[in-house]
Amino acid sequence: MTATVIREKLYDYIKVTDDKKLAAIYNLLEEQIVEYTDWHNDEAFVAELDEHVKNWEVNPAQGSSMDEVKMHIQSLREKRK
After folding, report:
1. How many C-beta atoms surround the C-beta of residue 25 within 10 A?
2. pTM of whole model > 0.90?
3. Please, which of 21, 23, 25, 58 could form a disulfide with 17 given CB 3.0 to 4.6 Å?
4. 44 shares a domain with 13
5. Does 37 score more than 70 pLDDT?
6. Maximum pairwise Cα distance, the chain
7. SS (H, E, C) 12-31
8. Residues 70/77, Cβ–Cβ less than 8 Å
9. Are residues 46 and 79 in the same domain?
């Protein structure tokens, strides 16, 4: 089963499961969820984002087009499969 299929099955299950099972799933994954959602507390990551913003402010032409960003995201998704 591909990661995409697993992800879809989990989304579907979480949407309809009862509160007790939902709480159990959350408790199982809570540590990873917090790490993922608290990216703003990661000083190295925030510094890297700040650096990218500064570079873009100096020379916005060096940024990527939306099509380039979408193609890059698609290639990353394909590598995850």
Report:
1. 14
2. no
3. 21
4. no
5. no
6. 52
7. HHHHHCCHHHHHHHHHHHHH
8. no
9. yes
Mean pLDDT value across residues 58-81: 86
Same domain, 33 and 66: no
Tokens linked to 28? 């199982």
Residue type, 75: S
Tokens at 62, concatenated: 């060096």
What confidence category does residue 36 fall into, taking pLDDT thresholds of 50, 70 and 90?
low
The predicted model gives 57-66 an average pLDDT of: 82
Paired tokens of 53: 């913003």
Distance CA 54, CA 49 (A): 9
Tokens of 44: 């190295």
In total, the chain counts a number of residues equal to 81
